[in-house]
Predict the 3D structure of the following.
Amino acid sequence: MKPFYTKATSNYDNSISIRYDELSSLYRHWHFHDEYELVFIHKSSGIRYVGDNITPFKSGDLVLLGSRLPHIWLNDSAYNKDGGDKIAATTVIHFQKRFVHNDFMELPSMAQIKNLFLKSQRGICFPLFKNIEPVLKELQSAENTQRVILILKLLLDLAEYSNKEYLASESYMKIQNTHKHDRLILVHEYIAKNFRNKISLNELAAIAHMTPQAFCNFFKKKTAKTIFTYINDLKIGYSCRLLMSTDLNIAQIACESGFNSITFFNRKFKDRMEFTPKEYRKQFKSI
């Protein structure tokens, strides 16, 4: 699934734009844009993809996304039924690059906010961030300088928040920032297309034009993961989506995700997610 480029704001918009949406479901396309984005979920649930991170989302989630970071929020199936009563409500703030990259942000006193935007390249979630809804409501009614003052205060609060969770992995960001013809990009693309099938070390080494041993060392140095840990993480992420969005049983999901053994799937899933697949589905189906 290749993300497509979209324009979140026009050049005629203010450098900060804010909107509140109530829709039957959230925007259902894997995409990226130049603007930085702060998203608050007033009411919605489903699966969130940010880079190579695949995790459930729910009402109350607050996420900051860096420029050109691919993302999509996929609602539970209940949100997409004709005539259904499920509503997805969000507030989205877009920051044009000129707001983030300028002489003002280079001032020493702006270092915390500048660093927040730098780290947002991986996507940042702020669990249990309190009292955000009144702030967003005030921001929507504010204009010009007053809006800038309020947004800087919010950004400082986010920068100082101690309970941040980074979404896309460091290895994914390294791959994203690698030249498109780099051998690691070719390997990554091949894995993304084929991870549900059996992939041999010899296949991947051949794509990278290396011996298997040299490739293993190269991949771990670049991504801080072994190649098969990386592949299993992709499989687990895909299985999370199936657990949330389908009624397939656990054995079917294990097979669909590329695991030949349900015992191995259950063990790897719990190691990675801290729940068994059954517990995971029960917890997040009840959101």
Q: What stands out?
A: DSSP finds twelve helices and eleven strands in the chain. The radius of gyration is 20 Å.
